[in-house]
Inverse folding.
C-alpha cells in the first residue's frame, strides 16, 4: 500500500533532480538568512553557486550536535517569529538541549512522511493506534500522532508507562497498532503474561512500530513472537523532525529514508570520507525541504550502511540497514572495540536466556554481563544453568575477543525503564 | 510409578533470599517437609530444592511473587529407623547396577523417608517395589 505512490516510486533521475534543486534552494536560503551557516560555508570556501551536482554535497561542511547546542536557543532558526509553529527539544541529558523549530509547513511535511510510513506497513484508517511514546518536548509521540491522524486512524495518545492502563486501553478499545521502544515492548509482553494473559491471543495487535533505541533482529523476532504481530523498525531523530525519517517496509529488510525530504550519506566517522553502499559508517543527513531550520550534513552518530539494489516493495527511496548502534555507543574493553548490539545479538540466540541484560564495566578493565533467565524454559536443573552460562561466555568471547564475567539473574530483576533503557554502565577506575 | 516432585527454585546468592522464599511459603500456609540449598560455588546463582505439602499451590504463590520455579521428580522410599536400613537399599540397587547419585533423609509423619536420585529412576522404583519397599506418593504429602 502507498500513501503517495508517485513520489514513493519516482525514478532515480526524478529524485536526484528534485534533491539537487532543493539542496540549492536550501543553501540559497542559508546564505541569505543564517549567520551561523554564512560563516561555516564561507570557511569551507562554498559560494551560493558551488553546487553543480549532488556529488558536490561532499564539499559542504558538517553540522554536529555541539553546533546545535552552541546555537541554543534560537540561532539556527531562519524564519520570522510569527512563522514559527512549534518548538521541540532534543533530550538534553547534559547541559542545554537542542532547540528545534518547525513552521506549519515543516510539521505538515513530517506528518505526511509519517503517514507514508504507516501506510507502507499496512496501517489504514480502520486501525486503532495506541501511541506509547513520550508526548511532550520529545518529538517521538507528537509527530507519529500527526501521521496517524493524517491517514485517519483512531489515535490514542496513551504515552509511555502505566502498563496497567495500557493493557486496559488495548483490551477495551481493541488496539491494533502500537508504537513504543523495544525495551518497553519486551517489558510489556512480560507484564501481560504475568497477568495470566497471552499477548498473542488475548490482544488484537497486528502491527508494532518500534523505535527510539537500536535493537537487534533477534529482539525483533522475540517481540513478534510474544505479541503474534509484525514488528517494523522506525528510525528518526529529533534534529531531523523526529520519527519517520526512515521506516521499514513490509519486506522487513532495511529502512527507507524519504529522499524528497532528506539527502542521505554514510561516511567513515574517522576520515569523514563518504562510504560506498554496503560499508558501515555514520549516517549523515541534510534536510532539503525545511523552512525554520535547515541543517546541512548533520552527523547523526548512528551507524548503518546503504543497501544497494531495488527493494521488492517498489519504493525507490534509499534503504539503509538496521542501525548497528551509535558511534558513541562503542565501548573499548581490554583494547577491543565492542558494540553492545554484538553482545545483544548473541544473548538473544541462546536458548534459556530471557529478554533483559546489562553490561557493566568495572575494576581495572573487566566486563560483567548480567542476563535474566527465561522463566518458561527453566527446568530446575543446575547443569542447564551451567550450560547457559558457558555458552554465553564462550560465544561472546568468540565474537568480541574479551572473556566476560557472566551472571544469571531471575527474570524481572534488572531495571527496565519505560523510555530508553541503559544497557552499559561504566564503573572502571581508569 | 510412585514418585514425588521437589520444587527447584532459581536462587540468587544474595542475603535475604532464603528468608523471602520461606516467608512466601509461610504466608500461603504451605509446610516445608525438607529442603536443600544447592550452592554453585564461584557463581552468583544456585538452586533451592524444597519438598512441600501442597506443590501446585506453592508454585502458584512463588511465581506470583516473582520467583523462577520448576519441578523435578525424585524417589522417596519409606525405610525403617534401624541400623542397616540404608545399607539394605544401597545393597539392592548396587546389585542391579543402579548408582545412587544423591541422597538425603527426613521424617515424615513419624516415619523415616529416604530421598534418592538414581541413574534410572523408573528401574530403581520397580526394583524397590519388588523388594517390598513402599514409595511415597504426592497424594500422601497433601493428606
Amino acid at each position: 500500500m502507498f500513501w503517495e505512490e508517485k513520489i514513493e516510486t519516482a525514478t532515480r533521475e526524478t529524485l536526484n533532480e528534485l534533491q539537487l534543486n532543493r539542496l540549492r534552494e536550501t543553501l540559497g536560503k542559508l546564505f541569505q538568512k543564517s549567520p551561523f551557516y554564512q560563516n561555516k560555508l564561507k570557511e569551507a570556501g562554498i559560494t551560493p553557486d558551488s553546487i553543480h551536482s549532488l556529488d558536490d554535497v561532499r564539499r559542504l561542511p558538517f553540522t554536529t550536535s555541539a553546533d546545535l547546542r552552541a546555537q541554543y536557543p534560537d540561532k539556527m532558526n531562519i524564519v520570522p517569529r510569527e512563522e514559527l509553529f512549534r518548538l521541540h527539544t532534543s533530550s538534553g541529558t547534559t547541559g542545554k538541549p537542542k532547540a528545534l523549530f518547525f513552521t506549519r509547513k515543516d510539521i505538515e511535511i513530517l506528518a505526511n512522511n509519517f503517514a507514508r510510513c504507516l501506510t507502507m506497513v499496512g496501517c489504514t484508517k480502520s486501525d486503532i493506534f495506541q501511541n506509547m511514546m513520550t508526548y511532550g518536548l520529545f518529538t517521538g509521540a507528537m509527530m507519529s500522532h500527526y501521521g496517524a491522524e493524517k491517514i485517519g486512524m483512531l489515535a490514542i495518545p496513551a504515552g509511555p508507562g502505566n502498563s496497567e492502563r495500557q493493557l486496559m486501553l488495548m483490551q477495551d478499545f481493541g488496539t491494533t497498532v502500537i508504537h513504543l521502544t523495544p525495551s518497553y515492548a519486551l517489558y510489556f509482553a512480560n507484564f501481560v503474561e504475568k497477568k495470566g494473559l497471552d499477548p498473542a491471543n488475548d490482544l488484537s495487535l497486528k502491527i508494532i512500530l518500534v523505535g527510539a533505541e537500536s535493537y537487534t533482529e533477534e529482539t525483533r523476532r522475540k517481540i513478534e513472537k510474544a505479541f503474534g504481530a509484525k514488528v517494523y523498525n522506525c528510525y528518526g531523530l529529533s534534529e531531523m523532525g523526529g520519527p519517520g525519517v526512515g521506516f521499514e517496509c513490509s519486506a522487513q529488510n532495511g529502512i527507507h529514508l524519504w529522499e524528497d525530504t532528506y539527502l542521505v550519506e554514510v561516511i567513515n566517522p574517522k576520515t569523514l570520507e563518504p562510504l560506498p553502499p554496503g560499508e558501515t559508517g555514520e549516517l549523515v543527513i541534510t534536510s532539503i525541504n525545511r523552512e525554520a531550520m535547515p541543517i546541512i550534513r548533520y552527523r547523526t552518530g548512528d551507524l548503518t550502511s546503504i543497501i544497494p539494489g531495488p527493494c521488492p516493495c517498489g519504493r525507490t527511496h534509499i534503504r539503509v540497514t538496521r542501525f548497528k548502534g551509535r558511534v558513541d555507543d562503542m565501548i573499548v574493553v581490554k583494547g577491543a572495540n565492542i558494540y553492545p548490539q554484538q553482545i545483544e545479538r548473541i544473548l538473544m540466540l541462546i536458548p534459556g536466556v530471557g529478554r533483559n541484560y546489562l553490561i557493566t564495566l568495572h575494576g581495572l578493565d573487566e566486563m560483567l554481563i548480567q542476563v535474566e533467565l527465561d522463566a518458561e524454559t527453566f527446568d530446575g536443573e543446575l547443569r542447564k544453568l551451567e550450560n547457559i552460562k558457558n555458552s554465553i561466555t564462550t560465544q561472546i568471547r568468540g565474537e568480541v575477543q574479551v572473556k566476560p564475567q557472566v551472571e544469571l539473574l531471575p527474570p524481572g530483576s534488572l531495571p527496565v525503564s519505560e523510555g530508553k533503557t541503559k544497557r552499559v554502565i561504566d564503573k572502571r577506575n581508569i | 510409578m510412585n514418585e514425588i516432585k521437589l520444587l527447584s527454585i532459581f536462587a540468587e546468592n544474595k542475603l535475604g533470599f532464603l528468608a523471602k522464599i520461606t516467608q512466601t511459603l509461610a504466608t500461603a500456609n504451605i509446610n516445608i517437609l525438607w529442603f536443600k540449598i544447592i550452592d554453585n560455588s564461584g557463581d552468583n546463582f544456585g538452586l533451592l530444592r524444597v519438598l512441600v505439602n501442597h506443590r501446585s499451590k506453592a508454585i502458584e504463590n512463588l511465581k506470583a511473587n516473582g520467583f523462577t520455579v520448576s519441578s523435578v521428580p525424585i524417589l522417596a522410599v519409606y525405610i525403617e529407623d534401624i541400623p542397616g536400613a540404608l545399607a539394605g537399599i544401597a545393597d539392592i540397587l548396587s546389585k542391579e547396577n543402579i548408582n545412587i547419585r544423591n541422597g538425603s533423609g527426613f521424617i515424615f509423619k513419624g516415619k523415616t523417608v529416604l530421598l534418592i536420585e538414581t541413574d534410572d529412576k523408573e528401574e530403581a522404583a520397580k526394583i524397590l517395589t519388588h523388594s517390598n519397599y513402599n514409595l511415597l506418593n504426592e497424594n500422601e504429602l497433601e493428606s
In short: Chain B has a mean pLDDT of 91. The helical segments of chain B are 17-27, 55-64, 85-95, 121-130, 138-142.
